């Protein structure tokens, strides 16, 4: 998928220092020599495939190799004559990618597709040929990792290629497994590229591929990619970290001494376990150094204890906490509560005799395979899993974890490549997930269930994740049984009950964008706020728009006290037959002096004459439309209004104001409280009045609440004693 040159020395250094599964230099050289000789088989298997087959059989002893041989023959003949920039035959690249996947335990179908992953993109082979010879499954994987042509997509080729891969990954996670292995080999062999191209590729790897590797749980690929990116983008810090590791390399390793004590302890407890010292990779060392400053030899690695069964993990934990001094704050149980990327392990830390602290990981051998290889360790997640060995709920879906479902959902509504690309990077930058438990009901959406959200998500994000576009009419929330604003940041395990307005025309406020972390929420809010219908520029969207045909009538006098529905009692003098909408910025009610402005869709938006928006629109050359109130009869239906209460900050102010409002028989539609400033605070209420004539008495009742020094209608200019200087 790329023609970067091979840099064997760099690959050798990385593999040697980290002690993780790596494509060794000798393997690379054997592959190169065999590729130069062509695809001549020996005992039915091409020479170049021998090493791949040997590694593959370690994980899958009964795997058939005929299809791999057939795929190699097609790939070698198709790429024949193509060379990498290092001068090696191009076939060494798909062979190296296949070996990386084989070392991680990928099944035969994935290896077949990885051998062929560049044929459709770089040779005359077509997808139809791949399908005819290898079937639909292999064809789908090859198509998923095939780049879109720049000649067709121009500057949008890269983001659209990733969009295509994400969609394909939504149906088969093996697509992204092949892409990650492909990028790892290209990063290992990036040495002869121009520095600016190295930096560009490294940044995309950092922003997109490494987070995807983390989400898919493929730690073996993720950690090496991090080190390779670190070396390119931060060469000075990389050199300092490497020097630090080298300095400690010749000294006694305190972790080795502690590991021996742990082995003895577990042997005496009759617990069969493998105790290893696991070196940190360079980026991890750098992070620890930034967090702790001075480092000891024990900080350069961690202890890894591998056992057979889940119960053994807790037995090991008990022995360690009994025989060593534990650091209680370091304990985390990812077995009872696995991470969103399938990761399971117990994390703890114990203190040695010399005071060194050793972080310790405890897991089963199977957990370790999944921790290293993630979804690759699952084999073919689409094969039948019936039978006694089928994991409970596992088939539920490694293919569609919550983060992937979210990506796929919002990408469908993001046609613009630049917006998609920036949103993708933002979403992937949020590398932790939380689970929130939702309480539902007939009026509040789906039944009880759970939501997986990125860490730092707010109630706004939860509303859009749960209700989609219907979240526009969300008014507030209860978090763990207590009322909370939509800006409230949720924590793992919170119970959430979203409060939805019955009025489907209610829309989000612009400040919701400040509280939204997820692209899905931000995009939905932005679309609503910039919708082409409704109010024009300078006229804020209504909080609760209502429309009705205009009809002739007369303006009520000061003594009129009939209950009225505002939109039903408005007449447009200058545009007979037009529909009217009340502006949400000032929520006019009778007998306010009002004016209107024609907007798109044959509608007139009505504002109070004192609304600041009216002055701005008039200054911009907009012509007002004559509007007046008319009598609605004696039935009446009430109205909605927004009030601002300016007060001195004190305890229980919100409760006292709400009680005063309720005593007037008025319903609170929504309420917001700004942070106190210079001991003053502003409360904003959107209220539903049964009768517009009751507005003056309501405002008087609110002013009588201790601490309140003024109550204003929304849209009115602030007096000199306003809250803000």
Query: Strand portion, in percent?
Result: 15-25%
Give the uncertain stretches in residue-range form. Answer: 2-25, 36-43, 384-399, 441-447, 533-568, 632-636, 717-725
Largest sheet: 6 strands, mixed
Rough outline: globular
Question: What is the tally of helical segments?
Answer: 26
The helical percent reads 40-55%
Radius of gyration over alpha carbons? 33 Å
Assign the structural class, choosing from mainly alpha, mainly beta, alpha/beta, alpha+beta, or little secondary structure. Answer: alpha+beta
The end-to-end distance, rounded to whole angstroms, is 60 Å
Summarize it.
41% of the residues lie in helices and 16% in strands. The protein has 725 residues and is of the alpha+beta class.
